[in-house]
Design a protein that fits this description.
Oligomer: heterodimer
CATH class of chain B: Mainly Alpha
Order of helices and strands of chain A: HEEHEEEEHEEH
Shape of chain B: globular
Radius of gyration of chain B: 18 Å
Number of domains of chain B: 1
Strand order of the largest sheet of chain A: 2-1-3-8
Largest sheet of chain A: 4 strands, antiparallel
Number of strands of chain B: 0
Radius of gyration of chain A: 24 Å
CATH topology of chain B: Ferritin
Strand content of chain A: 15-25%
Number of strands of chain A: 8
Largest sheet of chain B: none
CATH superfamily of chain B: Ferritin, core subunit, four-helix bundle
Distance between the termini of chain B: 35 Å
Order of helices and strands of chain B: HHHHHHHHHHHH
Structural class of chain B: mainly alpha
CATH architecture of chain B: Up-down Bundle
Number of helices of chain A: 4
Distance between the termini of chain A: 48 Å
Largest interface: A-B, 28 and 31 residues
Chain lengths: ~200, ~250
């Protein structure tokens, strides 16, 4: 006896009604995560939007594009960085600037380029602050203080190597240039309240 | 302008987009991972949206309104190729179809962006971005799985072999190819197929997959003029089930 669903696609699967023993899943049955950063408009800072699971950075980009920049969302550029390649500092509270917890000095060795992201408000997302040349993640953090600290306190800093960033091509900006007439995709386009009201009026008339 | 030729062209493109959009949407909730489920569903919606735009152009040329055209016709009134109506099968087949069809779709709309028929040229330019992403999505998946493991390579290869005669059916000659070409509306199916071969070869060459000998295959044709496989009518019944409960309902 096959399971009967209102969804014909489910019926086509022919799932037996008897429950089969659920196999426990392995600890790591997911792909690794990548963090997506989006620039809504030219000139605006890239901002963290969230993670995607993917087997590599190219596919992470594909997924992030539909996940975080579809349905008429404005987008000018999109970047992905593997989560494990992002160095995160400690968090600070009570208006304390995380840069003011630094005791070390920059090494002055400009061996590699790093990208710096700031969290300016708890509960918001990290925003791109700029790049620095340094010798390590820790050194990039220390060096970023001289270049990117200003009056407003920063509560947490993310740093990644420039080489670890996959960015959308300028030539591919038109992938965000989509048909706007797709209201039917949005639940809001179906005005349920209006329909109910009209139905009730029709009944009482 | 030859309206009959134009309608022939618009119908086959619109029907391809609608039927494949519907087929691909059957994966919603069943995708291999959440991110891919979202991406594939979103592209399916793009295709349905594109078919709607094409039906609107047809409407302006005197055909019925888009909903009636989409939901009230029987299989023999559809002009889509057999390829898009085949059941989804496993994800390997759906991905191969996505790759083979969307490459043709991308090239077709690129050609149509220069069409002398302005409404079609404008629409083609407008949806260029959507389709570019579809092609990017397909290419990256095929490059990834076409060179990953023995299992992924053999499964894609089997699907590729199975799909190819149907894929060739995309380019079934039109009764109006010469006229459309003469009017500068569309360069024709054989010109499109030549570009398509070049494009798919470029991607397949970057994988462990083998492209079947296309000249040795018999294209699965007939769909453009109403001859379909047994799979189309059940799809149409399912797609229009709600609409047909009350075709006059205001949505």
């Amino acid at each position: 006896m096959a399971m009967k669903s209102l969804d014909p696609r489910v019926n086509r699967l022919g799932i037996p009604e008897e429950k089969s023993e659920l196999q426990p899943k392995g600890m790591l049955d997911q792909f690794e995560t990548y963090e997506a950063f989006l620039q809504v408009k030219e000139g605006k800072a890239l901002e963290h939007v969230g993670p995607v699971h993917a087997p590599n950075e190219e596919m992470a980009f594909l997924f992030a594009k539909e996940q975080y920049s579809r349905r008429g969302m404005f987008c000018n550029a999109l970047c992905v960085v593997k989560t494990e390649n992002i160095f995160a500092t400690d968090f600070t509270d009570d208006g304390q600037d995380v840069y003011n917890t630094i005791t070390a000095s920059p090494s002055g060795e400009e061996t590699e380029s790093f990208e710096v992201f700031h969290l300016m408000k708890r509960g918001k997302q990290h925003k791109y602050a700029g790049d620095v040349m340094a010798s390590s993640y820790e050194d990039a953090f220390v060096t970023a203080k001289d270049h990117h600290q200003d009056a407003k306190p920063v509560f947490n800093v993310w740093i990644c190597k420039t080489d670890h960033v996959l960015s959308s091509d300028e030539d591919d900006r038109d992938i965000w240039d989509t048909l706007k007439e797709k209201q039917y995709r949005d639940a809001i386009d179906y005005r349920a309240q209006d329909k109910i009201k009209a139905f009730k009026e029709e009944k009482s008339a | 302008m030859n309206t009959e030729a134009l309608k022939d062209l618009l119908y086959k493109i619109a029907d391809d987009q609608l039927i494949l959009g519907h087929r691909n949407s059957e994966w919603t909730g069943f995708g291999p991972l959440l991110e891919e489920d979202i991406a594939f569903s979103s592209m399916a919606q793009d295709k349905v949206g594109q078919s709607w735009q094409l039906y609107k152009i047809l409407n302006e040329l005197g055909e019925s309104d888009p909903d009636t055209v989409a939901f009230m016709r029987n299989a023999e009134q559809f002009h889509n190729c057999h390829f898009v109506e085949l059941p989804n099968g496993e994800y390997d087949f759906s991905l191969i179809r996505h790759f083979l069809f969307d490459t043709a779709e991308y090239l077709r709309f690129s050609m149509l962006a220069d069409s002398s028929y302005e409404p079609l040229a404008l629409l083609s330019k407008k949806i260029k971005g959507e389709i570019k992403y579809h092609k990017m999505h397909a290419d990256i998946w095929i490059k990834q799985l076409g060179a990953a493991t023995d299992d992924s390579i053999s499964r894609l290869q089997e699907s590729l072999d199975l799909a190819m005669p149907y894929a060739l059916g995309i380019f079934e000659a039109s009764r109006f190819d010469e006229e459309l070409k003469a009017d500068g509306i569309f360069e024709g199916e054989s010109a499109l197929m030549a570009q398509w071969k070049e494009q798919i070869t470029k991607i397949i060459d970057q994988t462990e997959l083998q492209l079947p000998d296309l000249d040795a295959l018999t294209p699965q044709t007939g769909g453009r003029y109403g001859e379909h496989t047994e799979h189309l009518q059940p799809l149409l019944d399912e797609m229009s089930e709600v609409f047909k409960i009350d075709p006059t309902a205001d949505w």
